[in-house]
């Protein structure tokens, strides 16, 4: 991703041409410039809530079992 603030006149013209073109809904394939759009999301979004619940239960069990001690 280009994060520069200023663009050359050629870059600005190219940007205006790209923005003025309507989106192509007939071909929903991701752009070549967006390889991240092609890959499916990993398993992390499904596993993360389970990990959080297990860690929460483990922390609660440790607190309950620790008590005041002898």
From TrEMBL:
Residues 1-43 are annotated as: Disordered. The keyword Membrane applies. This is Uncharacterized protein. The chain crosses the membrane at residues 47-65. Residues 1-20 have a biased composition (Basic and acidic residues). Keywords: Membrane, Transmembrane, Transmembrane helix. Residues 21-34 have a biased composition (Acidic residues). It comes from the Bacteria.
């Amino acid at each position: 991703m280009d994060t520069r603030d200023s663009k050359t006149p050629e870059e600005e013209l190219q940007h205006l041409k790209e923005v003025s073109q309507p989106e192509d809904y007939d071909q929903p394939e991701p752009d070549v410039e967006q390889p991240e759009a092609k890959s499916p999301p990993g398993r992390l979004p499904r596993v993360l809530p389970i990990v959080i619940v297990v860690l929460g239960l483990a922390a609660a069990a440790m607190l309950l079992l620790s008590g005041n001690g002898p």
